[in-house]
Structure formats: structure tokens, C-alpha cells
TrEMBL record:
PANTHER family: TRNA (ADENINE(37)-N6)-METHYLTRANSFERASE. Residues 3-139 form the TsaA-like domain. This is tRNA (N6-threonylcarbamoyladenosine(37)-N6)-methyltransferase TrmO. PROSITE patterns: TSAA_2. The keyword Oxidoreductase does not apply. It holds the Pfam family TrmO_N. The gene is tsaA. The lineage of its organism: Bacteria, Bacillati, Actinomycetota, Actinomycetes, Propionibacteriales. It comes from the Bacteria. Belongs to the tRNA methyltransferase O family. Keywords: S-adenosyl-L-methionine. The keyword S-adenosyl-L-methionine applies. Residues 152-171 are annotated as: Disordered.
Length: 171
């Protein structure tokens, strides 16, 4: 299977370690999706939406080996390792990223957005408009271990590794 990116993302971030871990933890920062001119017509109508999903390729690294399918989440470093399908990090068997961003402006071959959680030069695979009736579950939502953690504004892998563990009162 061959997948051809439709464009490239431009952001202020050059290192994954210092890039916010979730778009919702970095709502003020803007980025730009530069769309290949061959796909420019596909942007027609997108400006009517307030939000869109960006699907990206996070595969700069070698494929995740089978012995690395359990990892410790940045947001819960003192907890047990989890399977990568219970996490949202970039180290996965097929490293596809998914970011819900706010649409700021749509030009001929550009999409300006808020909610940057990607490194500059990240290949863009697709854009899909956010559609609440389809994108928000109608039944109660459980978010697994995410229900137990906070995502601080601007959190990056480096800042989370540097954060001191909370004192649980034990000697």
C-alpha cells in the first residue's frame, strides 16, 4: 500500500520532545497546512467549519518493534506500561496522528489552524471536517486512564518528564 501525503504542516516546533502532546493543550498556537496544489480544490467548503481533523504521518522513526507494544504514558509516568492502542503517542505500529484543530482561515492551498501538536514538516495525509453528530458519541464516554490525569496547557514530553512526581504522603 502506498500513501501519498496531500501536504505538509508548518509549525514553530522542530523537536518532538518540545512539541505539545495534544492539540487541546495548545489551543492558542497557530500552524499552517500547506496543501499540494493538485489537491487545492478539495479545500472548497472547509472554511464553513469551525474545526477539522488532521490525519498525519508520524513515522520519522523506525517502526515500533513488537517488544515495544507496551509503553509508559507521558501523562502517567509512575503508572504501569500500557499497550500502545490505549495511548495516543507517536510510537506505534502504524504511526498515524490525529489532531482536532480549530480552522482559522482557508486559502487556495493553505489551511491556517489553532491547536498545534505536531512537529514542523509533518506530512499531512488527510483533512476531515468535524461533524458533532458523527464525532461525539451519543452514549456515556469512558476515557480509561485519561480520566485519572490532567493535560496541562502546553505540556510536552520534555516538560512532563521534568515534572516532579506528586508526594503521596508515604515515607
Amino acid at each position: 500500500m502506498l500513501v501519498t501525503p496531500i501536504g505538509m504542516l508548518r509549525t514553530p516546533h522542530t523537536q518532538r520532545e518540545h512539541t505539545p502532546i495534544q492539540a487541546t493543550a495548545n489551543l492558542a498556537e497557530e500552524g499552517v497546512a500547506e496543501i499540494d496544489a493538485r489537491f487545492a480544490a478539495a479545500l472548497d467548503g472547509l472554511s464553513a467549519f469551525s474545526h477539522a481533523w488532521l490525519l498525519t504521518w508520524l513515522g520519522d522513526d523506525p517502526p515500533t518493534p513488537l517488544d515495544s507494544l507496551h509503553q509508559r504514558p507521558f501523562l502517567r509516568q509512575d503508572g504501569p506500561p500500557l499497550g500502545v492502542f490505549a495511548m495516543r503517542g507517536p510510537r506505534r505500529p502504524v504511526p498515524i496522528g490525529l489532531s482536532l484543530v480549530e480552522v482559522v482561515d482557508v486559502g487556495d492551498t493553505r489551511l491556517r489552524f489553532r491547536g498545534v501538536d505536531m512537529v514542523d514538516g509533518t506530512p499531512l495525509l488527510d483533512i476531515k471536517p468535524f461533524f458533532p453528530a458523527a464525532d461525539q458519541p451519543r452514549s456515556p464516554v469512558r476515557a480509561g486512564w485519561f480520566d485519572e490525569v490532567d493535560v496541562p496547557e502546553g505540556a510536552t514530553p520534555a516538560s512532563l518528564r521534568a515534572a516532579p512526581a506528586e508526594d503521596d504522603g508515604r515515607p
